[in-house]
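INFO  loader      accepted 1 record
INFO  loader      residues=395
INFO  predictor   begin
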Amino acid sequence: MKIKTYQNLEVECDLPLDADPKNLIALPALVDPHVHFRTPGAEYKENWESGALAAINGGVTTVFDMPNNTPAITTEVILDEKIKLVNEQLTKINIPLHRYFYLGATTDNLPEIEKCKNKIIGVKLFMGASTGNLLVADYEAQKNIFKKCAELNLVVAVHAEDDDIINAQKNNFPEATISDHGKIRPNRAAQIAAQKAIHLARETGVTLYILHTSTAQEIDLIRQAKKEGIKVFAEVTPHHLFLDETAYGTLGAKAQMNPPLRSKNDQNALWEAINDGTIDTVGTDHAPHTLQEKSLPYPNSPSGVPGIETYLPLLLDAHNKGKITLEKIVELTHTNPLKIFGLEKNNDLVLVDLNEIRTIKNENLKTKCRWSPFDRWELKGWPKYTILNNKIYKV
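INFO  predictor   done
INFO  writer      dumping tokens
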């Protein structure tokens, strides 16, 4: 049967007999350039079987997985072992997600970056400590990593929070609670780190990808850097677009992530940056933890939230409210990630019903952790079918 695309063209889809095509619109399947599927080392939170089911449920057929595993993915040997495990898990459920992997940067693994250059999507650099033990806080070491990646034509993806500022702030909050999370990791930590990263990109010519941009200050820096012709690209997460710091009062640690939720002003700056082209991609930073872990008293509660299967409904609902066009959604979730990372286009699709109203419910999620900070949100616009390698999955 023929399905209309978001561009008012038509595509042929061999849908199940009970499918009603009249309310369906075809979009290119989503690329999520920022996931943590927890293999190896924390499969009790997520693995590639549950992660792939969650991805398909959210209209996602391509993912870039992060290296802060146990052990951290910092050498070719460890990377190869991870890829083998991932392939085994995906074969079990017969969902051949398009998958790409980051290598984690350390102060002394430049030779490993060179060895892995044809096996990775880019190099992940933590400028401030987050989940796991990957951290390169020393400026000279950061510069060497940027130089090496420029030589090898590899993207450097940075977690831009300044470690010195975070550590100084921790001392100011000896009895911190969850409401202090954003004060311990303030806007200034993100601003200073982004400033350093942009300076290094200017100096080395590397392609810089700033992960989970969350502040108005970062947006100003990135906008100016783009004007100067620096190869800098910016990602934003659904949680920073749809939640702000007031969520700590209702969600507690279920709203805890790094970088933290910000003010309404910061959130507004992110939406402006989406619409003026400063923000290039939406990456979920899908980072599942168990509810038991999240119930630990702060700061023992881990940072990170799941998001891969809820971000398309959130964006479609925003479209229905006039905040974003379908064309912009496709640009952020498909076209730009392929372009930035030099990937070939595929024919995968997600068929959505823009008029369907449904409520996000923890019990319906496919992610192994089975919770969402958006639980009980009623949204208009939902994926109905995901098509991966010409195979149709009902969602």
